[in-house]
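We were asked to recover a plausible sequence for a given structure. The inputs and outputs are reproduced exactly as logged, with field labels preserved.

PROBLEM: sequence recovery
POSITIONS: 372
GIVEN STRUCTURE:
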């Protein structure tokens, strides 16, 4: 199987994300009878409620909060945001940042990232108060993802996104994607689905692109994007294991590659799901292994929610010698629910009185039994 799949393991976020700091020194403060000066500073200058001001001024917290407040002030965050702002940090430093459990800050409609946007993007961590290039990074990523909403979702999926080096990782990876996907729209769609990949090691990104090419899919083709997603999601071991599974059902190496080139997404299904669907298609529907290899989309449908209920209808129609019972299985399962009901169920309820009731019951059982 090594001839089929070359390369290393599936891509991981890669690289270590540097903990963000506010550029403030940490010094323990002995208990004082009078309010700590930080308490007064935060209450009078920043508008913090007293309880939160007391929390941040305790032992182990920053003696000088001006650095963090200065950073926030650069982006218009001069006022305390009530429930929307929390106090978070790690064992070595604490920063004023957006509480990761809050999502109620509204994104402004104007162009360019606002302070609240930036705070959300960093998911509770801030870069160094003196670090430059924060806004350019957000602007670059905002243009890459196409909207603030997509960028915010991507930053939640990949915590390395906003902390990764844009020149050493993000831009080179994006450049590689543009070369093989050939369309800014495809790149935007891909990074929105797999934001972790653009923070991976550049060599790993290059390797996974080469693996897709080695499997017979050309750069720039419409299928390259799907193949890139599929290959990057699984390890070589998993890939080989799924090949051996399909081989046990009668697929040849050529048929496995054919199926992959037609619909790489079937590799995203678990082995349990693939096995169950193949057994159903071969034993219950009567499909040949080569038929499934030529139509791998069948392996991506829900067994309980679509394949079994529609086969139930076709079987009843065939038993009652009604037109439609012998129709191609792929065509029937590819239809929308409305189209399938109108063509195969509703029009035949008089001939087969239990058809609609049985179909609905089968679908209901499928929803309750679905475990994939």
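RECOVERED SEQUENCE:
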């Amino acid at each position: 199987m090594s001839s089929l799949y070359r390369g290393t393991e599936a891509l991981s976020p890669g690289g270590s994300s540097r903990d963000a700091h506010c550029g403030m020194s940490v010094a323990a403060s002995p208990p004082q009878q009078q309010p700590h000066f930080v308490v007064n500073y935060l209450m009078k200058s920043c508008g913090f409620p007293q309880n939160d001001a007391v929390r941040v001024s305790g032992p182990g917290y920053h003696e000088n909060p001006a650095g963090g407040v200065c950073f926030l002030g650069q982006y218009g965050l001069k006022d305390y945001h009530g429930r929307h702002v929390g106090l978070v940090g790690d064992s070595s430093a604490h920063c004023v940042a957006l509480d990761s459990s809050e999502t109620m800050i509204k994104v402004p409609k104007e162009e360019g990232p606002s302070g609240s946007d930036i705070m959300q993007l960093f998911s509770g961590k801030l870069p160094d108060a003196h670090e430059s290039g924060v806004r350019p990074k957000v602007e670059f990523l905002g243009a890459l993802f196409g909207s603030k909403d997509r960028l915010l979702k991507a930053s939640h999926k990949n915590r390395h996104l906003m902390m990764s080096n844009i020149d050493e990782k993000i831009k080179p990876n994006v450049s590689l994607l543009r070369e093989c996907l050939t369309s800014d729209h495809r790149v935007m769609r891909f990074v929105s689905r797999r934001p972790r990949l653009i923070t991976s090691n550049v060599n790993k990104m290059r390797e996974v692109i080469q693996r897709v090419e080695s499997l017979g899919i050309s750069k720039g083709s419409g299928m390259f994007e799907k193949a890139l997603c599929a290959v990057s999601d699984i390890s070589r071991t998993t890939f080989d294991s799924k090949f051996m599974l399909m081989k046990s059902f009668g697929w040849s190496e050529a048929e496995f590659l054919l199926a992959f080139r037609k619909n790489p997404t079937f590799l995203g299904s678990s082995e349990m799901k693939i096995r169950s669907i193949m057994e159903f298609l071969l034993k219950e529907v009567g499909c040949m292994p080569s038929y499934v290899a030529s139509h791998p989309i069948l392996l991506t449908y829900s067994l309980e929610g679509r394949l079994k209920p529609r086969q139930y209808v076709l079987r009843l129609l065939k038993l009652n010698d009604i037109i439609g019972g012998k129709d191609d299985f792929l065509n029937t399962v590819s239809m929308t629910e409305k189209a399938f009901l109108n063509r195969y169920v509703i029009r035949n309820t008089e001939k087969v009185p239990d058809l609609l009731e049985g179909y609905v019951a089968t679908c209901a059982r499928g929803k309750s039994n679905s475990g994939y």
